[in-house]
Amino acid sequence: MLETELEEKPPGKAGFAIRGQMFRLARQSLVYGVGPVVSKFIGVFLLPLYTSYLTTKDYGVVALLMSAEVVAVIVFRAGIQNAFFRFYYLSSDPLERRTVVRTSFWFTITSATVGLVLGLVLAPEIASVLGLHPGQIDLVRATAVLLWADMNYQQQAAVFRVEHRAIAYSIASVSNVVITVGATVTLIVGLHKGPLGLIVGNLTGTLCVFAVLLVYRAGLLGFEFNRKLYRAMEHFGLPLLPSILALWVTRFSDRFFIQHFLGSSAVGVYSFGVTIASVLMLIITAFLLAWPPFAYSIEDDDDARRTYAYVLTYFLFLMIWAAIAFSLLAPTLGRLLGSKAAFHPGARFVPVLAFAFVLIAGYEVVTISIGRVRKTGMNWVITGSGALVDAALNWVLIPRVGAMGAAIALLAGYATMFVGMSWHAQRLFPVPYQWRRVATMLVAGVGLVLLGKWISVSAPLAVALAAIFPFVLIGFGFYSAPERAQLAALVRRVLHARPA
C-alpha cells in the first residue's frame, strides 16, 4: 500500500525534495567518478593493445595476479579504511581528526610493508599455488610491490574524501591513470616486457602519485600512533572484514576456479569478457563514492526511507539500461577490442556478467539501511552465503559447461546477496522499495536481450533495441502518474523546439 502511494501520489513538496536529492546524488557521483570512469574507459580502449602484445595465457596470468592483489589489499587493510571514515567524523576537533589520519596512515604503511615482504620472500610458493611456472615468479614480486603502493595510495586518497575535496580526489585519480597508461604503453610496446610490463605499468602510476601525496601531506602525517584509538577502530572495522572479503572473493574467485579446471588461456578469454562488462562497474564505483555520505546526511528517517526507495528504482533503471546495451553490443565490442581472434569468445560472457553487476548494484543500495541503524552483525552471513553459492556453482559448473559456468555462478552469488540483504534490511529499517517496478525493469531488460540474441541483431539494431527500453516500460505500466506527466512535458518541449 505504501509503495503504491509513493508511486502514484507523492506530495508536491516531497516530490520536489526527492528530485533535488536525486540531482545532488547524481552530481556527487559524477564528480567522484571522474577518476574511475577515466580509468575504466582507458582500460577498455587499451584492450586492442593488450590483446596485440599479450597472448590469452599472458592476459590470464595478469588477471589472476590482479585479482589476488585486490583480495590481499582487503586482508592486509584489516577493516581500517572503513573505520577511518567512521571515526574521522566522530569529532569536529582538527587535532582529533589529525590523530585519526595519522593512526590510519601508520597502520596502513606498516601492514602494507608486511604484505610486501611476504610477497617478495614467498613469491616462489605463491606462484606454485596459483599454478604459475618458475619463469613467472617476477610477476608475483611485481604484484607484491603493487600491493604496497595500492594500499598506501588508497589511504591517502581517502583523506580527500573525508575532507569533501572531490576535485582534488579526481585530480589524483586521473594523474594516476595518465602515468599508468604512459608507463604501460612504454613497457609493453616499446620495451616488449609483456605481462610484467602490464603489472609494473600499473604500480608505476600508483607509486608516483602516492609519493606526491606523501610530500603534499607532510605537515599532516607526523609520527603519531594512538593505540587506544587503533583498538577502537579495529573493533569497528574488523567485524566488517568477513563481509567485504566475501564480496570481493565472490567477484574474483572465478578466475582461480577457471585456472584450476581450464588453465591460464581460458582465464585470459574470460577476463577479456569481464573487462568489457565491467564498464558497468564504473557506474557502481562512482555511485558508491557518493552514496554513503549522501545517504547518511539525510537526518529525517521518513525522508531517508522515501529517498532510498527512489534511489533503488532509478539507479537500477540506469544499470539495467546499460546492461542491455552492453549485452547486445558484446559481439561487436569483442571484435573491435580483441586484436586476436582468440580473445573474441570472451564476449559471450558479457550478458550474464552485466546482469550480475545489476544485482550487486541493488545490493549496494539496500545495504545502506543496515549501516544507518548500525547493526552490521549479520552482513557477513549474507555475503558469506552468496560467496558459498558462487564457489559451489563454480566447482560444479565449470567442468561441465566451461567458463560460462563461472559467469552463471557470479550471477547466482550476487542474486543471493541482493535477496538476502533486502530481506534483512527490511526487518531493521523498513523502506518502501518499489519492488513491482524493479521486477518490471528486470523482466523487460532480460526480455530485450533474449530477443536480440534470438534474432542475432547487428550493431545498429542492437543500439535501436537498447534505446527502446524506456518506451517498452510504458507498456508494462512502469511509470507513475507524475513521471508520465513529466515525460509528456519533455516530449512537448522537444516537439515544439525550433532552431534559433
Protein model, in words:
The protein has 500 residues and is mainly α. It has two domains: 1-32 and 262-500, no CATH class; 33-225, no CATH class. It has 24 helices and no strands. Helix 5 runs antiparallel to helix 13, helix 14 (264-277) crosses helix 16 (301-337) and helix 14 packs across helix 17 (350-366).
Overall number of strands: 0
Shape: globular
Low-confidence spans: 1-16
Q: Return the string of H and E elements.
A: HHHHHHHHHHHHHHHHHHHHHHHH
What is the tally of helical segments?
24
Radius of gyration: 23 Å
Strand content: under 5%
Distance between the termini: 48 Å
Query: Helix content range of the residues, please?
Result: over 70%
Overall structural domain count: 2
Mean pLDDT: 84
What structural class is derived from the secondary structure elements? mainly alpha
Biggest pleated-sheet summary: none
Write the layout of secondary structure elements.
Layout: H1 2-8, H2 12-32, H3 34-45, H4 47-53, H5 56-77, H6 80-88, H7 94-121, H8 123-129, H9 137-162, H10 166-190, H11 194-216, H12 227-237, H13 241-262, H14 264-277, H15 279-296, H16 301-337, H17 350-366, H18 368-373, H19 379-401, H20 404-428, H21 435-454, H22 459-467, H23 469-475, H24 481-496
Question: Keywords, please?
Answer:
500 residues; mainly alpha; 2 domains; 24 helices; globular; disordered N terminus
Summarize this structure briefly.
It is built from 24 helices and no strands.
